[in-house]
Amino acid sequence: MGELIAILSGKGGTGKTSLCAGIATALAQQGERVLCIDCDVGLRNLDIALGISDLGALSFTEICSGSYSIQQAMPHPVYNSLYFLTAPLNCTSDAVDIQAFGEMLYRAQSHFNYILLDAPAGIERGFTLAARFAGRVLLVTGPDPAAIRDARRAGEVLELMGKGNVRLIVNRVNKKTVAAMGMTVDDIMDQAGLPLLGIVPDDTNMVLAAAYRQPLLGYTRGGAAAACRRIAKRIRGIPTRIPMK
Ligand SMILES: Nc1ncnc2c1ncn2[C@@H]1O[C@H](COP(=O)(O)OP(=O)(O)OP(=O)(O)O)[C@@H](O)[C@H]1O
Ligand SMILES: [Mg+2]
User: Fold this and answer.
1) Which ligand is nearest to the CA of 15?
2) Neighbours of 153 (CB within 10 A)
3) Which of 66, 183, 221, 235 is deepest in the core (most CB within 10 A)?
4) Does residue 198 have its Cβ closer than 6 Å to ligand 1?
């Protein structure tokens, strides 16, 4: 059975969607069958980070309703073991049938090694929808105090939900800025109260790749792309060094 991974944060804009796409493409490059699902109902943009258009892509609610099968998820044109479901535009996350969503994810686990769920910002229904069935949670924070505080709060909500496998990804790290703040990555982990899965540098290629409608890993090899490849390996149980740790 495939593994369900939710990519969450407390604060918005920390890089969930960018990292969901980067990690999903890295897992596919490493030979895994991957489905990524945009759970940001009404504000979807995972297609852009994947370097594709969601024109013609089925939404996860169309699969939930039983009108289509999970095998009809859109294949990525470059990474042939990567598939994509978009979020519906014309409803709110409150309208999503949680039981049907869980059943769809259960079916997906027979067809994919990894299913990545890109959550919306905040700790409301979209957050719980993505977290509810996940066996592993990647909580994305920036190195700034507001993002770290919100990550801690999100970690507490996940603990109340009974989620044990929660790991922190610190995104947009600029070594000099973090040092000037008098902080180490250990301090960030302590303040967020969560163990670390990875550190991703602040990298303008992230913005440029999206602007040129290319997947990050097809656009560049170093920086944030290399960090996504290392995180994908750790998810697959292959230990890799965490730079800066
Ligand atoms: N490591 C990085 N380096 C530079 N820019 C980044 C990095 N990660 C993300 N960004 C940029 O930050 C912005 C927000 O990223 P993204 O949309 O992935 O965040 P999000 O957490 O999904 O936001 P939301 O909460 O609105 O869903 C985007 O412009 C993205 O290109
Ligand atoms: Mg997003």
Assistant:
1) 1
2) 15
3) 235
4) no
Please give the model's pTM, rounded to 2 decimal places. Answer: 0.96
Task: Name the residue with the closest Cα to ligand 1, atom 6.
Answer: 206
Tell how far the Cα of 65 is from the centroid of ligand 2, in angstroms.
Answer: 24
176-201 pLDDT, tens per residue? Answer: 888 888 888 888 888 888 999 999 99
Instruction: Choose which residue among 16, 18, 229, 231 to substitute to test ligand 1 binding: the one with the highest number of ligand atoms within 8 A of its C-beta.
Output: 18
pLDDT, tens digit, 9 for 90 and up, residues 140-162: 999 999 999 999 999 999 999 99
Within a domain: 240: no
100 within domain boundaries: yes
- List, for the chain, all residue ranges whose pLDDT scores fall below the cut of 70: 244-245
Look at the chain and report how many structural domains it folds into.
Answer: 1
What pLDDT sits at residue 213? 93
Range of the domain at 57: 3-235
**Cβ partners under 8 Å of residue 101, min gap 6:** 60, 64, 129, 132, 133
Q: Is 211 in the pocket of ligand 1 (CB under 6 A)?
A: no
> Ligand 1: distance of its center to the CA of 43 in Å?
14
Residue 174: which residues within 8 A CB-CB, separation 6 or more? 143, 201, 202
Residue 34 is part of a domain; what is its CATH number? 3.40.50.300
- Could you identify the atom of ligand 1 that is nearest to the CA of residue 119? 27
What secondary structure does DSSP assign to 8-35, as a single string? Answer: E-SSTTSSHHHHHHHHHHHHHHTT--EE
Any domain includes 245 = no
Q: So what's the pLDDT on residue 245?
A: 61
